[in-house]
Design brief:
The structure is a single chain. The protein has 92 residues and is an all-alpha fold. The chain is built from four helices and no strands. The N and C termini lie far apart (58 Å). Belongs to the FHY3/FAR1 family.
């Protein structure tokens, strides 16, 4: 596999997973830090490209499972009221 093919593969994978995300008002540094935090524990500075692809899939799956768990908790729990005002209880 030549470098041109590898770069094409990386661009393809990037577009699949993060191509549709809108980073409103985030700086480039903020986006980088956010993306890097997604990979904590899944890669390091010596990760080869082929291993990176595998680890990327694991990171995405992990995020998906976490998101599903949070959705489940949200849908199956009651709201936490922050005041004793009756209008807040009525809005629920």
């Amino acid at each position: 596999m030549n470098w041109k093919a590898i770069v094409g593969l990386v661009k393809f994978i990037t577009n699949i997973y993060i191509g549709g995300i809108f980073f409103a008002g985030m700086t480039t540094t903020g986006r980088s830090e956010n993306i890097n935090s997604c990979f904590n524990g899944f890669d390091n500075s010596r990760t080869m490209l082929n291993e990176f692809v595998v680890q990327y899939d694991k990171a995405v799956e992990s995020r998906k499972v976490t998101e599903e768990d949070e959705d489940f908790k949200t849908m199956n729990s009651g709201p936490v009221l922050s005041s004793v005002h009756p209008i807040e209880a009525q809005a629920v």
